[in-house]
Design a protein that fits this description.
This protein is α/β, with parallel strands linked by helices. It is about 25% helix and about 25% strand. The strands form two sheets. A seven-stranded mixed β-sheet has the order 5-4-3-6-7-8-9. It has a two-stranded antiparallel ribbon with strand order 1-2. The protein starts with 9 loop residues before the first helix and ends in a 14-residue tail after the last strand.
């Protein structure tokens, strides 16, 4: 159903995702309507497919962003702290911040391992007045770091989204997940990847649920000179 969700505008894209039951929550629908994907995807922004953004990275398909938001929604509330690993273009980081509420004191930290992508995300958010406001009040920040190690200094996090395929649910990320909290993470190799939804309850007990098959770029460290 994903490919037929494409639209001619942001509004049409979100309407089609909702019509196809890929968005089921009004909160997610409103948040995604409030962030124009054209500010983050340089080509075919309203097509429901991944798009290249440079640096060997992609912006995920809109239906995958919707799925992540729907899954994490119970843990996205005013005052929540959210970690977005592999923040790339900054699109989902912006959407996640909207799900915390416009007047919320919560924070979303976007982490990427390439400085060019950190700069790109920051520039993309500055294309809208809303994005400028969110950056200026500190509700969103982007940092360069190894996503496999998370960003412990602002944890623990109520919700963690990982936007690249990890070889495992890295222990450092689990350590930074609040109790209770939820992580949405693709795990696997170049040939087989699945979304795992990992919950930590109030006692710290971890429960893992294998969801659906996906295809993501790998969660890695920064390429060295000469690598492509």
């Amino acid at each position: 159903m994903a490919w037929i969700s494409s639209g001619s505008s942001n509004k049409a894209l979100i309407a089609n995702l909702a019509s196809n039951k890929l968005i089921t929550s009004e909160r997610v629908k409103t948040a995604m309507l409030g962030v124009d994907r054209a500010h983050y995807a340089p080509a075919l922004p309203y097509q429901d497919s991944p798009q290249p953004i440079g640096f060997g990275a992609t912006i995920s398909a809109p239906h995958m962003h919707a799925s992540a938001c729907e899954s994490l929604l119970p843990f996205l509330y005013p005052g929540a702290r959210v970690l977005d690993i592999g923040s790339g273009s900054g699109y989902l980081t912006h959407v996640l911040s909207k799900l915390l509420g416009d007047e919320s004191e919560g924070r979303v930290v976007g982490v990427d391992h390439i400085q060019g992508l950190v700069d790109l995300a920051t520039g993309n958010m500055q294309k809208s007045d809303d994005g400028k406001k969110i950056l200026s009040n500190g509700k969103v920040k982007f940092v360069k770091a190894d996503g496999r190690k998370g960003w412990a200094e602002e944890g623990p996090y109520d919700a963690i989204h990982v936007g690249a395929a990890a070889t495992e649910a890295h222990p450092s990320l689990l350590d930074q997940l609040k109790a209770p909290g939820r992580m949405f993470i693709p795990v696997g190799d170049a040939y087989s990847q699945y979304i795992w939804v990992i919950d930590k309850d109030e006692t710290g007990k971890v429960q893992r649920e294998k969801s659906f098959g996906v295809r993501y770029v790998p969660l890695t460290d920064e390429p060295t000179a000469g690598e492509h």
